[in-house]
Design brief:
The chain is α+β, with helices and mostly antiparallel strands. Among the domains are: 30 residues, no CATH class; 125 residues, Beta Barrel (OB fold (Dihydrolipoamide Acetyltransferase, E2P)); 122 residues, no CATH class. The chain contains 12 helices and 12 strands. The strands form 3 sheets. It has a 5-stranded mixed β-barrel with strand order 3-4-5-7-6. The chain has a 5-stranded mixed barrel with strand order 8-9-10-12-11. The chain has a two-stranded antiparallel sheet with strand order 1-2. A hairpin with a 5-residue loop joins β9 and β10. The protein is flat.
């Protein structure tokens, strides 16, 4: 550190080696703070494509019918047909609505006729599973791969193009024994399939209708309100009862028992937990509308009782408010009047009891005579107060004068000493 004297005062200049050391230390500190930040940025800058694992049913795009189809029951014979295979193999994955989402596999589609290019990539791997599987339907598979970012167009049975579906680059594919069910927690109206189809207000179905044998034979299930204001329907598991007397089983039997015991007339609301099995079935009796609906396997079923707060409050609040003033006010006033009248009727001498009341009211007149004394006292107090005020003013003036004189003396002393 260099030191220099200026006009007898020592000054310090920071420079030379000390300045270099200080700058170097600051640079090292900045770098140490930046290293963790840049390391974090380098990790998240180029993420690898996410590898996903899915299980579902092997399907060709022409046989994917969305809500109107059942990939689980799709047959191996159809999967082997060259014309179906030529529309592209893919996987139908069960979602949380009990329906299926479709994904294409990568690779060249299987040839529809001789002389066309052979299948490649995952299309060829899927074809190998179709050829070797021993199942006639429910051909479950498990895959792992990455979404390519591309889509492929579906080809329908009549040769027209359908929807566009995402393509997966397959890393591995193998046949599985079954697919994984999807758990569900649902609240909605209990209803049979006959009364649900075409019904925009399923909750209005009456308990009498729900208990009918023909309705039960079409299959009980749950109607769940969707975001768009419509209702979805899912069958409960088990065997449907029949009008000929065949009893229900599983979830169908549980539902029938609930309906037989409920006191609710309509809008029978239920809460269920369980899982979508992946199966989709249709009503085979009654109207037989051929509409497929998902199957929901029940773990628990309970009725949700809607609180009837409005009806119960009206009778409880109104009666308590109206009768309370009349019994409390009228009975208490009437007995007092009756007791007074009865006393006057029985006793003739109660008249003198009213005479003594004026005597106490006449005697208070002497209280007006002492009013002259407070005036004299007030005048004396006023004079005393005036004297005290005058004394205070005189004392204040003397104190101010003493303070001024003190200031003057101090100023004179400073002038003599030369400080002013």
């Amino acid at each position: 550190m260099n030191t220099h004297n200026f006009a007898g005062t020592k000054k310090v200049s920071r420079g030379g080696n000390s300045m270099c050391r200080m700058f170097l230390m600051r640079l090292i500190l900045c770098i140490s703070l930046l290293i963790p930040l840049t390391a974090g940025l380098s990790v998240s800058a180029a993420p690898d494509p996410a590898l996903i694992t899915l299980d579902g049913y092997l399907l060709t795009s022409c046989c994917y019918f969305g809500k109107t189809g059942s990939p689980a029951s799709h047959g191996r014979g159809c999967l082997k047909m060259p014309t179906c295979a030529h529309t592209g193999y893919g996987i139908a994955v069960l979602n949380n609505q009990g329906e299926y989402d479709f994904y294409f596999f990568d690779g060249t589609f299987y040839p529809a006729a001789a002389g066309e290019p052979a299948a490649t990539g995952a299309q060829a791997l899927a074809r190998a599973i179709v050829e070797t599987s021993t199942k006639s339907n429910h051909i479950a598979i498990q895959i792992s791969g990455t979404l390519s970012g591309a889509t492929r167009a579906q080809t329908n049975h009549d040769g027209t193009l359908g929807g566009n579906y995402a393509e997966i680059n397959i890393a591995s594919i193998q046949e599985a024994s079954a697919i994984t069910p999807v758990s569900g927690d649902l609240t909605g109206y209990v209803i049979d399939e006959d009364c649900f189809t075409g019904n925009t207000n399923p909750g209005a179905d009456s308990i009498m209708c729900l208990r009918m044998g023909s309705c039960a034979a079409s299959g009980y299930g749950i109607a769940v309100l969707q975001a768009d204001g419509t209702y979805s329907f899912a069958y409960f598991d088990g065997t449907f009862s029949t009008t000929s007397g065949t009893p229900a089983t599983g979830g169908q039997l549980q539902t029938a028992a609930l309906l037989s015991g409920t006191l609710t007339e309509n809008h029978v609301t239920i809460h269920v937990t369980g899982q979508y099995t992946g199966e989709k079935i249709k009503n085979t009796t009654g109207t037989n509308n051929n509409t497929l609906y998902p199957v929901f396997s029940l773990s628990a079923l309970s009725e949700v009782i809607t609180p009837t707060a409005a009806p119960t409050n009206v009778p409880t609040t109104t009666p308590t408010a109206v009768p309370s003033p009349e019994p409390t006010a009228v009975p208490t006033a009437v007995p007092s009047v009756i007791s007074v009248v009865a006393g006057a009727a029985v006793t003739v001498t109660p008249g003198p009891t009213a005479a003594p009341t004026p005597t106490p009211t006449v005697t208070p007149t002497p209280t007006s005579t002492p009013t002259a004394k407070p005036a004299a006292i007030i005048s004396e107090t006023t004079k005393t107060g005036e004297k005290q005020t005058q004394s205070s003013l005189i004392a204040g003036v003397l104190l101010t004068a003493a303070s001024v004189s003190t200031v003057v003396v101090l100023l004179n002393r400073r002038k003599r000493s030369g400080t002013i």
